[in-house]
Prior knowledge:
The protein has 342 residues and is an alpha/beta fold.
Amino acid sequence: xxxxxxxxxxxxxxxxxxxxxxxxxxxxxxxxxxxxxxxxxxxxxxxxxxxxxxxxxxxxxxxxxxxxxxxxxxxxxxxxxxxxxxxxxxxxxxxxxxxxxxxxxxxxxxxxxxxxxxxxxxxxxxxxxxxxxxxxxxxxxxxxxxxxxxxxxxxxxxxxxxxxxxxxxxxxxxxxxxxxxxxxxxxxxxxxxxxxxxxxxxxxxxxxxxxxxxxxxxxxxxxxxxxxxxxxxxxxxxxxxxxxxxxxxxxxxxxxxxxxxxxxxxxxxxxxxxxxxxxxxxxxxxxxxxxxxxxxxxxxxxxxxxxxxxxxxxxxxxxxxxxxxxxxxxxxxxxxxxxxxx
Length: 342
Ligand SMILES: C[S@@+](CC[C@H](N)C(=O)[O-])C[C@H]1O[C@@H](n2cnc3c(N)ncnc32)[C@H](O)[C@@H]1O
């Protein structure tokens, strides 16, 4: 969004034009450095010539690239050696617990699907990934998707549970579209007397490799395989109505069209305890240029997913008897709407 209040320097004046025009160069620099194994090669610090030799770059050209990566905030220099910046050490070094390797791999796939923006707009429907896939290809695609979601979820879960302090000493968290279970795992870690029910598609729940929770949590977690968009009987029906103190919908309302998301919200609301809280954590339409691009990401890569505005979600939740209590913005750009029974 030109002139976004979020990023006044990024989107003002002639800089707006040049930044939009050349934004791809940032991605290319990041992915090229990662692909070459540069961030792993830096270790405790190396000279430019050492690094170039390790990753297979011409010493003169490679050194220019290393200097550029310093200007991008990915490397720094000290005493003639290159070192990782804090950002690179946290997210790009394979040795870091917060390494985003599967996210980088997934984004490489998305870079190809974004080339289909024009045909998607012209056709008015998804054109990417619509071909029939054999079960093995489908499983690998799903593992890549959930792996990337998991790495981001581990970071965003800390932000979310930092923003929302829960005082009740014990209770049940219901996580709908739980994916790897990273949000629930971070919550249970902070609240030792809580339990969690994690719902996802049957094929996700059945494949334990997709959600490797820490062993100390397994006794407090129950997985529930169900398609939340169908009305067919499923294990979801075994969760007692109004029995869950916290119901989380993280990055799931954007996966489908409004009518389906409204049904999903009604199902979620039916399980919420009288004085419980329902949380919608997502990328809302009004989240500046990030929200705008997220909507296109859904347009290109899903059948009918889209972003929702806060007011739309508040109205949809109102139809389920819920009232908005808080509207929070997370440090890395997502939003959190908190609802209680009205
Ligand atoms: C974008 S991921 C979000 C994962 C996690 N909640 C997060 O915030 O990172 C969406 C999740 O919802 C699940 N999901 C999508 N449609 C679903 C449905 N109809 N029923 C149950 N789960 C669904 C997907 O399998 C996936 O794990």
